[in-house]
Known about the structure:
Layout: H1 10-24, E1 27-28, H2 29-35, H3 40-52, E2 56-63, E3 66-73, H4 75-91
Antiparallel strand pairs: 1-3, 2-3
Helix pairs in contact: 1-4
Amino acid sequence: MSGTSTYRDRIYIIKDIILMLVQYGELNQTALVSFCGLNLKKHKPILDELETNELIASVEKTLGKRIITVYKPTPTGIEFCKTILEPYENLFPRKKNLDGKNITFNPVPSRTRRLSFD
């Protein structure tokens, strides 16, 4: 990994979170943060704000002695993404990297597996 990193605007982080949840249906907190390339300590307030605004929902599930937080997209969050965030990104595409290519969000490879809590 190189020493340079690119800055991702807050609005794109929000869009990436909602799209990742739509893609997978539900994700535990660790998987969501990892798949979106975020730092939990730094970006937890964004997750909390999205939940407060009812754009995502969280449920705590018990797995043995551990309590796991699982996030799901809400219909309001999906609609917000379609009506606000997608048009915004069309008007203001993500910044370009040093090669002149647009910076895009790449979903996690399909080799990862989802956890089931039945």
